[in-house]
## 1
Amino acid sequence: MSTTRPYSPGDRGHEPCGASGVSEEGAPVDGTSAGVAAAVPAAAPSEGRQVRRLSFDGESGVVPLARDFARQALYAWGWLPAEGADRRAAAEDVLLVVSELVTNACLHAEGPDLLEIACDRKVIRVEVSDRGAGQPSPRTPHRAGRPGGHGMFIVQRLCLDWGVVRTPGVAGKTVWAELGVPA
């Protein structure tokens, strides 16, 4: 499903000040600077939402950097090493979605600015912010044998939901996608 709403149906909306590691003014509450890659201290999986952020400011090789960052978060949250095939597949799906969203920001925007990965008991949410004006969408009709252009189709197939958030008066957008936590 492709949407433009900022959160999926029934989602919690923005977290209260400090709950996501960033104050309402956008400043980190963990003492890190806003422009530095920061792993927000994570609660234990049973204690609620866990968030990690990575700034791409001045970085090169952002797709592998993003995958490595996401992989580290999955290890920290207990998704990896995976206990079975379903959990392993779910972790690989998260890494693939991260790769696709960051690659799209590289190809169709001015590159990614920020990657945020959040996990709670039911959903893992991936957000990639960029300065691009374009609107991501799956290529229609999807042509399986044709190279390229499959990124958002893959995201659409793997995710519970995805969408785009734009802030009025601010250049760019945030593309988000949510995947279900394996049982």
## 2
Amino acid sequence: MAVSQHIWHCGADLPGDVLISDLQAFRYAPHFHDAWAIGAIAQGRCEFTVRGVPYSAGEGELVVIGPGQVHTGGTAAQVLAYRMAYIDPAWFQDHERVLYANGACPAGPVVTDPELCGRWLDALTPDDVPSEQRRERISAALFGLLAAHAAPREPVPSASDEPDVCALLRERMAADPACAPDLEAMAQAQDRHRTTLVKQFARRYGLPPQAWLRNWRVARARALLRGGLPLADAAQAVGFADQAHLTRVFKQIYGSTPGVLLKADAAGSQTL
């Protein structure tokens, strides 16, 4: 396995993180992000899945994955070079509301548009670009994506009065990542078997409850670390056994350790 990545945090003036990666024989484990992941392929081919369905994206194509969508990622036979933006959902929504009153459903997860891909590559360049200029480039590229490759969002059907135990379980885990929900008790309360609940949750959200919670814990730990909490304290706060456990799962999901990410925040960019 050979991995070379440059990671930096865009900071308060920009809408999220930017990742530049050169990968060879590398696979990301199934995971999700709490942001919109929009990637531009500069070289090679990315082989990935979204909710278990396989996809492939090559040079000149975009990858678009929504918040909470479980996916994998990695290389095909050759080296893969790509640039990825993890865009804050609120900032994304501000842009879609300009074009679509009720929100938008972007195309994807693969968008074939070489000219637009070039605009994203330019917006996510590793060159030293002033924050205001980079923000304008990302904003223009996002408007371009939504205008050319999105459709108006359909109205959401009204919720049923019947209790939704899967949604309740997800809400509980999201509200308290350190919790260990009693799946047996929740299933019995709805007159279900524990195995049935686990399978229904996995069909709905792409991962079984414990795997979903592990991913959510990493996302929350990442935010705590950026807020200045020490690694051991962040691990304990979200329910990991220790900082080594957090570090191991963090690397499976993000491809780098928490230390590398924090150094990138401080230094502006960092090469693995």
## 3
Amino acid sequence: MSRKKNITLGISATALALGLGLGVTGMASATTPTPTPSTSSSAATDNPDNHGMRGGHGADRGQLAADLASKLGVDQAKVTAALRTFRDANKAATKPAEGTEPDHAAMDAAMAKSLATTLGIDEAKVTTALTDIHGAEQATRAAALKTKLDKSVTGGTLTQAEADAVTKAVEKGVIGGGGR
């Protein structure tokens, strides 16, 4: 392969990796859930202000309330209200400094404690439910990334080695979406 083609391919792969990283980061990073009060998850989905479970642009925030309600055996409206109370009490006064990540483990622990207290449920049960939900979300993001990378390899945009490098970078947290 010519040097010019190698350089072009390298730049393209880097741009793709950064783009994927930023997109996955947008889904995975932010601070607190912001549920939308509703009696059905479709109402939460229809809300244009609903940008993501942790305040980013990923999954539907109302889905967290629905998933927690299901796992905890509690009415979704009560979970939604408890999540809103937690979010309001923990709203950041200022934006985090560039390049800093919120402590997701501490936020999850605080959320579990708050929800357990508000809902009258054992904190360990809430912690387990949150861990299960986050694990499922991470698996979904990883599968979506794999699908996208596989299509790029099949389409000739990336080599398998480049796709493997992007996957490894995400898994190691070098680029966004590396999990929690």
## 4
Amino acid sequence: MAKMPPFPGTTGRRDWKAAFVAIRKLLANGDDTEQVFRIMRALNVGSGERGYSRMIATSDGGRMACEQVELAKRFTDRAWVNSFAPGTVGAAYRHFLETTGYSADGLVEVSRVNPIEDMAHPYAWYGRRSRDVHDIWHVLTGYKADESLGEAALVAFSYAQLSGLGWALIASAASLKSVRVTGNGLFAKAVWEGYRHGRKAKWLIGEDYEKLMHEPLDAARLRLNIADPVLYKKAQRELGPEMASYLSAQKQAAQPEPQKLAA
């Protein structure tokens, strides 16, 4: 595969100092989602270029790259979201929105800590696509979005799918801290399972999400080779809600929850 040119205005170097400052803040407060995007900007050097190159090498991916549909706009179209038949991926996503209070535009707003997100450039479009499908991946994988465990497992899954080192740092740091906080390796094992499942699954970023949303959820999981998260479910049961969400200990119940992206 031909090497793609770097993102305009970037140095091509990872900023480990900025990443470690951000990961310390994120581990202190798992609801501080802005730190996720700071980590991604610091460490995911080259992953967008590689992913975009892989995408345009396929006929469907090339078409979607040419059309550049902004998925956040589709996912915030309530008439479109309400149109999905029961049992479909879209219906499961609608239930996700209703039960969590999260939204696609919530992720858009918090991601603007990274100005690259709004650039009119193919790589930036690919980056927005990676951001916007995050909650759909929660639906497809079964990892809960309102707990540290589910977010960390999906972050590991995302690293296997998207390859950016920012995902790896977050998943690894959350897992290491979990051993100290929970006193066992259940959390870490569930995160490692997320990575393994991400490796085995079909490359999800290359899917046509406007079509995927109409598929029956179980059939989509089977087609995409998304395995049942057995160790994740075991960790949920045995850790209990408090330990499964240990990174959100500072969250105030009386305050509205911010849109989250990672553990």
